[in-house]
Records
---
Amino acid sequence: MLRFEEPVQRIYLDHNATTPLLPSVIDRMTAVLREEFGNPSSVHHFGQQAKAAVDDARSEVAELIGADPSEVLFTSGGTEGDNIAIRGAVEALEGTGRRHLVASAIEHEAVLNTLKALARRGWETTLLSVDQSGIVSPATLRAALTDRTVLVSVMHANNEIGTIQPVAELARLAHERGALFHTDAVQSAGKIPVNVKALGVDMLSVSAHKFYGPKGVGALWIRRGLRVLPLLTGGRQERSRRAGTENVPGIVGMGVAATIAAGKMESEASRLGALRDRLEAGILRAVPGTAVNGSPNHRVPNTTNISFDRIEAESLLIALDLEGVAVSTGSACSSGTLEPSHVLKAMGFNAHRTQNSIRFSLGASNTDAEIDRVIAVLPGIVEKLRSLTRTPARA
Ligand code: PLP
């Protein structure tokens, strides 16, 4: 039997895939699981205790995104939030005859595959291209909008390369043509300021497990007065917009995580930004044939995506994992597929570069010493992999 030695130290650099739970999140969730088991819809003490816990969490999540608690709908995560926003809103407006949907080509699959599903049912769809900065230009959106456009969905920060999109400007353009605007803020909430009013959007989705909360819970903010059809029908939970007994422990955990993320945001952003920049500069210096993908200026502070010439990203990922370093080749949902990154493809990179890039996403536990170790081990690993392959150098 093959035996692998356990690496001396494990370094987690995949926080855009998911983050570990904060101890205080676990403590609060455990208390709810043990003691506050009531159904929030029940009238008695136990029900009201659970309802109060959900209400508190709603206020905490609302605070993180500058919203009114009554406009926050709890979901099972970012994917469901994106689905409710797109399907629920466009189906509510089906009678208007507006049947054109617009999204950027670098959206998460939760948006892209939802548009594909609606396209199969007769909606027209347009995907906005991006240039090598990985940013959607307002001019591209302006050209795509028509009087039939019902909804535009452009993410706030991209999960693979971290670029921040000019959401406020894009939302204004959509509104000028009478279309709704949704943004997937799953990768920005908790990392940089997110304010629904400043962004001027109609709907915004977030997910708890990207900011040290539990998996399987998220929230969708829906501007007051906007009609959105439910995807799940049944009871009257969540103001009849999402039926089903609430995931009380998950929701409560999300609330705690939201409060902590809001409190630490500024200091964590500057700490992680400095660590990320050091990692990036160290790699570019120590490893020949490397380049950063996407705009280095408009990015969330924890993310860098680097291409390694004459390397297959999956091989590098595995080699790094054997050294104890966890990174990713792009979105966790498409890893293991060996598919080229749809984000890098949409940015116009050649076939090789769409498959030779690694995402490093930093988070709370990362230290200077960890970054030093990655910079120290990477050149040797890359050199070894390059010596094993005969892939010719490409631009
Ligand atoms: N949107 C973006 C940008 C993401 O990065 C993710 C998760 O990777 C999702 C949506 C899906 O969120 P969830 O895993 O909570 O369904």
---
Amino acid sequence: MKIYKAKDYNDMSRKAANIVSAQIIMKPNCVLGLATGSSPIGTYEQLVQWYEKGDLDFSEVTSVNLDEYKGLTEENDQSYRYFMEKYLFSKVNINKDQTFLPNGMAEDEQKECEKYDALIHSLGGIDLQLLGIGHNGHIGFNEPDQAFEKQTHCVALQESTIQANKRFFSSIDEVPKYAYTMGIKTIMQSKKILVIVSGEEKAEIVKKAFFGPVTPSVPASILQMHNDVILVGDEAALSKIDI
Ligand code: GLP
């Protein structure tokens, strides 16, 4: 694993955007695995700036997102589709038909999961997966559990995740209780994984995930088994590890 220490959130975002842009330049028709949450916003903003300067071309890129809330329409401003449109898709020349997220409104849960796995498979897998980490060590919405869930699945969100995400909703009752997420196997099959972490409140989980035992009770710990992981964190998030 390569670890890059950044000064702060902006520096982390620039470093991460550099890695994503290198991927796009090296392989213009790459498959990017994308993430939501507050961690990647700065990365997307930096990528948009470089696109506007003419340094980046998304026209051949395909994207697959990690997860989506169950029960939210694409137009709902808390859906991850809406987030992606807002921060990235509407601002660059990516082909909208080549941007994918699980469909939170799908009628048949099982079919939707199978469809998403088949889609990723048909794309030849993910070249670069961008990942944030939840406070409880979740990646995508793979919550701490007894075992690693391999495939795309629908998951009941843990109370701590609902609490952490309530800041985006007007009341806690509006936070969806279920979400679709790519499974651990799919994430682990990405050719390269870029993890971004910022802030002191992530310092403990960073230590556990990357230097503690590999266990499904800390889903991100499985990343220790991947041979091409880059961790970009700011000083606060990396403050509990020796590098
Ligand atoms: C959400 C997302 C994750 C994300 C995590 C951390 O639950 N499903 O993909 O990594 O939150 O979010 P943040 O970056 O806001 O700390």
